[in-house]
Amino acid sequence: MKVTAVLTVKNEGAFLLEWLAHHRACGVTDFLVFSNDCSDGTDAMLDRLQALGWLTHVPNPGPHPQGPQWAALKQADTHPLVRGADWLMPIDVDEFVNIHVGDRTIPALLAALPEATAIPLTWRLFGNAGVRGIEDRRVTKTFTLAAPAVLHWPWRAHLFKTLFRNDGTYAKLGVHRPRNPDRARLEGQRWFDGAGRRLDPAFHTGRLFVDVGRDLYGLVQLNHYALGSMAGYLVKADRGRANRDAATFDMAYWVDRNFCDVEDLSIQRLDSAPHLQALRDDPVLGPLHVKAVTWRQERFHQLMAEESWRALYGRLLMTPPTRALPPSEAHSIWRPYAKPR
C-alpha cells in the first residue's frame, strides 16, 4: 500500500528531519516535497534526502500570486507519486499524525476503519507552554501541553487535513480536503472522523472543519504545533503564510491556538528515534540541520532590531495561555450568528 504525503516548505530545516522520521515510522511510504525560496538550507537538505531515497524534491520558486502552497498542490495533482498512490495526505511540517490504535501506524488506522474512503484528521492544538528561545530540541518532546479533548471555541481549532483513498473520486488536492469531486462517484464515499463516527455527506463535497464540542480523537488526531517557541513564532511570522488569502501571523493567531490545558504525551509512543538518528548521523544532513537551527536563531536576533518585532515579542511574553471557553460562553459567540449549513 502506497501512502503519499504532500508537503510544502520554506525555511523549515530545523524541523524537517523529525517530521520525516515520525511519518516514516507512522507508515507514510512516499514523500513529495515542494520547497519555496529557502534561505536556511532546507532545499539543500531536501536534495540530500532525495539522493538518499527518502523523498522526491520539487523546487517551487516564486512568485506565486495565489500562494506557494496552492502552486505546489497544482503541480502535485499530476505528479506520478500522487497518481500512483493508494492513499493521499497533503500536510504541513508543523502537523504530526498521531494514531491511537494498533501499532500506531496508518495501516492500523485503516484496519480499524475498513469502510473508510476518507478520514479527516482533526487538529489538536499544542500551545507554547512558555517556551521562549529557539533550541535544537524535538518538537514533539518540547511542546506537550494541548487543548482539551472537547473544545467549543474557536471553530478554527476543529479544522482538519484529510487522509483519503485515491480512488478517482477527487481530481484535485486541497489544503484541507480533496477537491473537484466526480459526482457520479460520491455515492461510494465513506468519511469517518477521528473517533470512528460516520460523517454525513456534507463532508464529501465542502466541509473544512468538524462539529465543535465533541471528542474527536479516539482513533487519531493531528498534533498541530502551530506556535512553537516565542522566538520561533517571530521567524514564522516573518516568513509569511503559504496561502496568500490567509490572515497574517499576529496576536490573534497566537491567542486562537495557545491552549496549554492538558499534557498529552501520546505521540511519543510511536518510536521514530531510529529513523531520526540515522538522518542526523548522515555526514551531509547532520551539519545542514545544525545550520538551519543556527539560521533561525540568527534571524530572530535580526528581527529584534526592529521595533515592530520587539513589540510583538513583548506581547507574547505578556499574554497568558488561552482560556478554553465553557459551552455557554462559546455558544453565545457563534450560535446566534451561525449561518445554516
Description:
The protein has 341 residues and is an alpha/beta fold. The protein has one domain (94-337). It is 33% helix and 16% strand. Helix 2 (42-51) links the parallel strand 2 (30-35) and strand 3 (56-59). The two termini are 36 Å apart.
Q: Can you give me a brief rundown of this structure?
A:
Helices cover 33% and strands 16% of the residues. With 341 residues, it is α/β, with parallel strands linked by helices.
Q: Rough shape?
A: globular
Number of helices: 12
Return the string of H and E elements.
EHEHEHHEEHEHEEEEEHHEHHHH
Q: Which strand-content bin applies to the residues?
A: 15-25%
Q: Could you estimate the helical fraction of the residues in percent?
A: 25-40%
Task: Order the strands across the largest sheet as they lie in space.
Answer: 3-2-1-4-8-6-11-5
Whole-number total of structural domains = 1
What's the average pLDDT? 95
Number of strands: 12
Low-pLDDT residue spans: none
Task: Specify the biggest β-sheet.
Answer: 8 strands, mixed
What is the terminal separation in angstroms?
36 Å
Task: Give the SSE layout.
Elements: E1 3-9, H1 13-26, E2 30-35, H2 42-51, E3 56-59, H3 68-76, H4 80-83, E4 87-90, E5 95-99, H5 106-112, E6 118-125, H6 139-142, E7 145-146, E8 160-165, E9 170-172, E10 179-181, E11 220-224, H7 230-239, H8 251-257, E12 262-263, H9 273-281, H10 285-303, H11 307-318, H12 327-334
Parallel strand pairs: 1-2, 1-4, 2-3, 6-11
Antiparallel strand pairs: 4-8, 5-11, 6-8, 7-12, 9-10
Helix pairs in contact: 1-9, 1-10, 2-10, 7-10
